[in-house]
Amino acid sequence: NEVDTFVMSIGTGGTIMGVAEVLKKKLPDVRIVGAIPASSKKGMDPGTPYPRTDISGGIVSDISDRPDLIDEIFRVSDDDAIKMTHRLTKEEGLFAGVSSGANVLVALKEAKKLGKGKNVVTILPDNRDRYLTDEHYVT
Description:
By secondary structure, this protein is of the alpha/beta class. It has helices spanning 14-26, 78-92, 98-114, and strands spanning 5-9, 31-37, 72-76, 120-122. The protein is built from 3 helices and 4 strands. Helix 2 crosses helix 3.
């Protein structure tokens, strides 16, 4: 089973860039898609699908240095990402955070676009513990 699309939220950029580099070597046709929650302080240059060079804060080399690795980046509304975290908790028993919600939301859209028989992979990088004081997460 090959991976057709990999979806990952972009924080420092380390996970998406590391996974993208390995996947693109092994599966040259894989599509790499980034997800950024709308509330993220990460910037994006107008008219390009790539984040500005300062998003990594110096921790990871700039994403714009390797535009060949990321095929597309989506901003996900906070409300949609939070709604997905509620679904993940209720339907799957996964106590996931907002970045995870954004990942799953974009992964589901990609899967729908690709159709049956395709594999879309994501990672749930955060949990809900860190958001328990936020009224959106207290049910």
